Amino acid sequence: MALIVLHPRYLALNQPLPFRIFDGRGLLLLPSGMKIELESRLQALRSMPLYIDETEAAPWLRVADETAESLMLRNATLQDISIARRKEPVSGRSAPARDALVGAHNPDRGTPSASFDVGLAERWESLMRQINGALTDASPESDWVIRLHAALSQGIALAERKPNEVLFLLIQHAGHETRQYSAHHAALCATVCAQVAHTLKWSADDRETLTMAAMTMNVAMTGLQDTLARQKDPLTAEQRERVDQHNLRSAQLLAASGVGDPRWIKIVRLHHDASLLTTPLASLDPAQRMARLLNVVDRFTAKISRRAGRPPMSPLAAARAACVGPDGQPDEYGSALLRTLGMYPPGSYVQLVGGEVAVVMARGERANEPRVAVLVGSSGLPLPQPVLRDTSSASRKVVAAVPVDEVRVRLNHEALIELL
Fold it and tell me: This protein's superkingdom (predicted)?
């Protein structure tokens, strides 16, 4: 793959991209067909070097060359050039070439070309590598905030289009692996926060601020958090001090790295403030309310995540521990989290009436009726291929959560996602 520079002026809001865009290291930033829907994401992308695959973009480049005088000199966008060329006579260029130009983003043509298609699980793993790299490199002297913002523009779009599938991948990773723990935990928190905020009918602006805060709440101890996930011994005094101060240091690092959103920084600084949990919601300002929700989500997702010293809790047990107050009842945010994820979120394991063991693939109409893929039959033997089940019928209802370590079947995430 030969990468060439793309001038950032050709990016625009709400216009599907006709090809993929990469960063300077060749990592995928934006897939073809994606729209940039927020001004903050657009500006973040415009401030960094961008590259495209010369072969993939050849049809567009041919159009760009042919229309340079009339369009490029007045800073036309990708879509401007594409639309203008489609209005021109066909002479000088064949119809198939014109189709190649518009095929990646024309809604009448369906999904992008299969030759450029990457499975969602593989795409998400690539995205997580980018996020982990940005968080690991965090310092006031680096461009880590820009890189993180650019990676998240793709991640947010994926999570909005495929909410169950993204949760499935994140919760599967949380339950089974400690690799890149800090980045994956942040991504799981950010995804759950965004979905709960949507349930609460918060604005898109608030959801994005909360998402960025969740992604960076532990940025001052990314490496340490990865180490602690694999460490069985008790924390040393130095480690304990860094953990206790990480919210303040993360907020300071954000400010020093050029983050100008005071709410983002305040949420990170307050996300472990226990006093917010007992203060009436009406008395909290917007940033404090977002920090309180992040606190609940952070504790819940930590409990369903594997550490070297302990197995993950089931989501039901984690919800009881993180979402229920002293009175035995969940507050507004705990209730919203339970409504959003259901009793059995995607990626967790359940047992059905007949003894079958299944992995949850998607939430159902009711909290206790998810869509599942059966892995182990009633005989106790693994099935040759997973079978999708709707648990709304009495003969197939869920009777219990199953601990992660009791499931001995190796999952093919890509194949499972394709069942949906």
Answer: Bacteria
The tokens describing 143, both together, are 């461009």
DSSP state of 36: B
Q: Indicate the DSSP class of residue 13.
A: B
- Three-class secondary structure assignment of 302-342: HHCCCECCECCCCHHHHHHHHHECCCCCECHHHHHHHHHHC
Contact, 82 vs 101, CB < 8 A? yes
For 327-372, the pLDDT digits (tens) are 777 789 999 999 999 999 999 999 999 999 999 999 999 999 999 9
The answer on 149 and 184 residing in a single domain is yes
Residues 6+ apart with CB under 8 A from 143: 48
Asked if residue 114 belongs to a domain, the reply is no
The structural domain count of the chain equals 3
pTM over cut 0.85: no
Count of residues making up the chain: 420
Domain end call among 297, 320, 341? 341
Which helix H or strand E contains 386, and what residues bound it?
Answer: strand 382-390
